[in-house]
Amino acid sequence: MGMERLILGLSILLVACFVSALSHAREVKVNGFIAQGVIQADGSNFVEDDGDISFKLTEVGLNSSYRFNSIFRVAGQAVYLDGGNRYQQGARIDYLFLESQLYDSDQWSVKAQLGRNKNYHWLYSATRDVPHTRPSIILPQSLYFDVFRDVALGVDGLALVTQGNNSLGEWDINFSLGTSPISSEQRTNLLGASAKGKLKHDSDKQFSVYWRPNLSGFQYGLSVIDADFRYVQGENDAFVNGKETSQRFMFNVMYQGSKHEVALEVMRERTIAEDVLFAGYYSDTFAEGGYLQWRYFLPQNLTWMARLDLYDRDRDDRNGSLISTLSQGVVPSYFGYMDQGTLGLTWEFSENIQIQAEIHRVKGAARLAPIFTPNIALNRNKYWNIWAVQLMYWF
Amino acid sequence: MQIVVNTSVPTDDMTKVQARRVFSMRQVSWANDSTITVYVMEEHHPTHKVFSTQVLGLFPYQLDRIWNKLVYSGLGEEPIKVKNEQEMLDRISNTPGAIGYLLNNIQIDNFNVKIIRVGEG
């Protein structure tokens, strides 16, 4: 409760600073985006329970920032999102922080952000809700797992951002420490409708390094996460008190050329769960996943995209047979993995307006909600499809 | 293609790497702590394409990605976009600490600007 009150107090203070800054500013730049699409995840509950065509593909955002002086700056963004079952529908503060320039030279700068920060650690995490900055409408679920989206967006806490240059090239070094609020809807997405208690994010530590060799088209990045969660049993709850730890290691490489862009991002994630499902329950598994993505830039602002995304929930049970055996055949083995082939096309047909369309062929159901208690009634297909079209405008 | 700054800017030359730092908004102040104001043209403007690829060694879409990340994640601010060379010249001339770029054949006499020499490295 103490931490929640501190965060609430800090948020009110930041909003007050922001409003005050905006009212005094002679020239305040406001940016934003608005996007609406249509999507169908036929044969799964990825978007709708019945797998039907849906217009739950709405993303709207508005942001601004204000620099008080060469040291202090405040920045914030509010968003409204509707993604169906993928994440909680509604408006929220995406980020809102006070930034302090701790060090600045012609080669290196170090900034601290206090408040609600974005996740700067993964290739697309900083702007995953900003449609025109994404390579596709649906990001690769191995790493950019929508069910876990709110927790992965960033933290309420502290972020340290270092940017610099030396004889080897350009460097970005990021560290963040904090927690994320977990709503009851997200708890249900993770644990299932029979969970009535509270899922709490006790701590989240992330570190990442990005390196771009001097005047090169390549970029290399790696990041590590250590996150602790706690479940507090509610009334008439099928789950019990327990805890869960996630430790993720990620590596990525990107090549950007005049006509092509190739990105590879892979991860290994250790998940340790104690109790939660029932007293005495213990699980320690290593999941693995990653994607290889190719984008080809055509004339008239057209971009083709092809991607293969692979995910195995347990590297010692890649075909999911253990899941099926332990559940005495109730849970099909295809809940142990989720592999996805995607083809997409983006067309910026006018300044700051573009349309994006894509199709996905999916094998498996390991990234479908809820995670702890698979929904075998709604996800009866080993193979299923997604198609989506989204129109987006930004300013 | 030449990099042009307001005469208040306390430097007469910079390396290609420094130019990349300034135009990708990683360096936000000059050596005398004055604020850098960066002016650029739209992503698809021919002058911007030439400047981006030949001077900075970056494709315009790479710069656009960098600026998008700054703006939509709160990490920083994007450069100010101008429509053409004349507006670029006027804005740099009237803004202390400003930097931008112009084609070599643009006359800068009678404006409060100077040309920056760009070296390798």
Description:
The complex is a heterodimer of chains A (395) and B (121). Helix content of chain A is 10%, strand content 53%. With 395 residues, chain A is mainly beta. In chain A, strands 1-2-3-4-5-6-7-8-9-10-11-12-13-14-15-16 form a 16-stranded antiparallel barrel. The relative contact order of chain A is 0.13. Chain B has 121 residues and is an alpha/beta fold. Helix content of chain B is 36%, strand content 23%. Chain B has helices at 16-23, 46-56, 60-73, 85-94, and strands at 2-6, 13-15, 37-41, 80-82, 98-102, 113-119. The longest helix of chain B has 14 residues, at 60-73. Chain B has a single domain (2-119), classed as Periplasmic binding protein-like II (D-Maltodextrin-Binding Protein, domain 2, 3-Layer(aba) Sandwich), CATH 3.40.190.10. Chain B is built from 4 helices and 6 strands. Chain B has a 6-stranded mixed β-sheet, with helices on both faces. The mean pLDDT of chain B is 93. Classes of the chains: A mainly beta (395), B alpha/beta (121). Chain A binds chain B through residues 29, 31, 33, 61, 63, 65, 67, 70, 75-77, 95, 97, 99, 104, 106, 109, 113, 117-118, 120, 126-127, 130, 132-133, 161, 163, 165, 170, 214-215, 256-258, 297, 301, 351, and chain B through 16-18, 20-21, 26-29, 31, 33, 35, 42, 44, 57, 59, 61-62, 65, 68-69, 71-75, 77-78.
Question: What structural keywords apply?
Answer:
heterodimer, A: mainly beta, Porin, 16-stranded antiparallel β-barrel, globular, B: 121 residues, alpha/beta, D-Maltodextrin-Binding Protein, domain 2, 6 strands
Low-confidence stretches of chain B: none
H/I helix tally of chain B: 4
Helix amount of chain A, in percent?
10-25%
Largest sheet of chain B: 6 strands, mixed
Round the mean pLDDT of chain B to the nearest integer and report it. 93
Number of helices of chain A: 4
CATH superfamily of chain B: Periplasmic binding protein-like II
Ends distance of chain A? 39 Å
Q: Please indicate the percent range of residues of chain B in DSSP E strands (runs of 2 or more).
A: 15-25%
The order of strands across the largest sheet of chain A is 1-2-3-4-5-6-7-8-9-10-11-12-13-14-15-16
CATH class of chain B: Alpha Beta
Query: How many domains of chain B?
Result: 1
The SSE order of chain B reads: EEHEHHEHEE
Instruction: Evaluate the radius of gyration of chain A.
Output: 21 Å
**Element order of chain A: H for helix, E for strand:** HEEEEEHEEHEEEEEEHEEE
Most extensive interface, residues per chain?
Answer: A-B, 38 and 28 residues
CATH topology group of chain A: Porin
